[in-house]
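B., you asked whether I could sanity-check this one before it goes into the benchmark set. Here's the sequence:
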Amino acid sequence: MRLVEVKVPEELWPRRGGWKGKVVNVLKKPGEKVARGEVLAEVEIEKAILEIESPVDGVVRKVAEPGSPVEPGSVIALVEEAGA
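And here's what the prediction gave me:
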């Protein structure tokens, strides 16, 4: 079993220090299958909503709750990679 951490991408984050965002929508629940590129959750930062996609095919094992605070590099989901 290989668990893959799904993180908030640092390169898309506003360049100002001290800013935090939050999870506003969770589209996949633990136990659900997910395909690579499928949106797992949406994160609100400043004036934008980031869609956080799964980097692999697999099964969602853990996902952040709506309203959870996040910052660059925060792990918001764990996906068990298919076939691993």
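One thing to flag: The chain is about 0% helix and 50% strand. Otherwise nothing jumped out at me.
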